[in-house]
Amino acid sequence: MRPNCPVAFAPAGRYVRAMKHEPGIFEHPDPEAIAAADARAEADIVAGRVHSHQIVGEWLATWGKPGRLPFKEWLAKRDG
After folding, report:
1. How far apart are CA 20 and CA 17, in angstroms?
2. In terms of CB atoms within 10 Å, which end of the chain has fewer, N or C?
3. SS3 letters for the chain?
4. How far apart are CA 62 and CA 55, in angstroms?
5. How far is Cα 51 from Cα 58, in angstroms, rounded to an integer?
């Protein structure tokens, strides 16, 4: 018994080539947004609002475990 779907029997490549390309979110970089994000990051560094890879790694190791907390809450609990 044949299904009523003609796509089931046609070569897939023909349909893939006919698909319209939808640009991804990173295909149109926004230089102003990137510059603004860089400026915020630099301000955080200057203000000391950064954490070491070790600390962030410890927090990431809690993901998927019961009682996982948002970073700021976890850090406050960790540091007492």
Report:
1. 8
2. N
3. CCCCCHHHHCCHHHHHHHCCCCCCCCCCCCHHHHHHHHHHHHHHHHHCCCCCHHHHHHHHCCCCCCCCCCHHHHHHHHHC
4. 11
5. 11
- Which residue do the tokens 């510059």 mark? 35
What would the two tokens of residue 38 be? 């860089």
pLDDT in tens, 33-79: 999 999 999 999 999 999 999 999 999 999 999 999 999 999 999 98
Count of residues for the chain?
80
